């Protein structure tokens, strides 16, 4: 009984949330796919249920439809405009990884929003940590204008060495993306041609590689 | 010039969505929290049955008849175990309210309250004695050693889940397994509640919860 009460309470809260979100929706949805009585949340729930069974079309429609909800959640958490896309990407990857935890009898929007909120908070935290580090770095540069002294050169050499080692330990696909796009500064199309991979795969691999490197150097889980 | 961000977004996300679409395989859905709680309680019940076969139910029932507060404390521990496990499983599903974490509170209050009241009694429960420090240490070992496999089982059951609050979930795992161990201890506990005994129980429960909380973030799969 307790569960029923809680579930009902939350569904109420949730439909309020999704109503608020539908105002900022930018991704067009196919009107033919939705019956008149179905709410957007119910439609997404049905898509996710189909995706759990392996329906790729429903899954891609669902993820495209989810982008606006994730953006809204990230904005509500106070993520800066230029980092919202990172949160969207991270959330989509998490959704993919934990899609089996969704229960189709419950609200999809509540499930998605909880994950997006978490990723938004992670983004804010890692941003905060990086900003404080960068501030100290600026300070160090200002107070030690001579960057060519021996210890600085050694230190930057060591740092470059560590980075090279970290890149070498990445999975092959990610390493390739970093080398082509990051180190050799090829354009996406050049890199795609050189590696024979599609641009989307390269972008995803670069994104994952940067995340792995950030975790390694900043100790972020 | 158009804002490059607005230009780049949809394509960036489309590429990822396309990629995730190609990786899509059918998944087995997570069982509902109550069902997974029931599965875990079944294991606890099997252990209880083994202990009851070994020690018999009579000494426990005699203690409870003579001193109902011990019975209430045991009941509170069982309720705490069930509700804490349920709350942990519920928090492993994104979108469930964090208020689930309060679910074990009434059971825990009954458990702690009844145990505490037991210390104020003037008579000693039938067939028991007040435990010495050494005997209290046995309770500590019992609670901790039963909590380890019970916690491990909960962690295994939660690994496929997605706890967005891993530390809170780990605290609930610790509470559930410590409460279940204290309930099992009740079957073969020949000591009356006393300050020393209560203290060791509290110490054991706190240790189990603390160890789980400290390791929780790492052992539970990163959400």
Strand numbers in spatial order across the main sheet of chain B: 1-2
Query: What's the helical proportion of residues of chain B?
Result: over 70%
Report helical residue fraction of chain A.
over 70%
Question: Looking at this structure, what is the CATH superfamily of the largest domain in chain A?
Answer: RNA polymerase sigma factor, region 2, helix turn helix motif
Alpha-carbon distance between the two ends of chain A:
38 Å
Stretches with pLDDT under 50, minimum 5 residues of chain A:
1-34
Quaternary class? heterodimer
Distance between the termini of chain B: 39 Å
Tertiary shape of chain A: globular
- Which series of helices and strands of chain A comes N to C? HHHHHHHHH
Query: What class would the helix/strand composition of chain A place it in?
Result: mainly alpha
Strand proportion of chain A, as a percent range, falls in: under 5%
The average pLDDT value of chain B, as a whole number, equals 82
Largest interface: A-B, 47 and 41 residues
Q: State the total count of DSSP E strands of chain B.
A: 2
Question: Total number of helical segments of chain A?
Answer: 9
CATH class descriptor of the largest domain in chain A = Mainly Alpha
Tell me the number of strands of chain A.
Answer: 0
Q: What fraction of the residues of chain B are assigned to beta strands by DSSP?
A: under 5%
What about the largest sheet of chain A?
none
Total DSSP helices of chain B:
8
Domain RNA polymerase sigma-70 region (chain A): 69-130
Region (Disordered) (chain A): 139-158
Protein name (chain A): Sigma-70 family RNA polymerase sigma factor
Biased composition (Basic and acidic residues) (chain A): 139-149
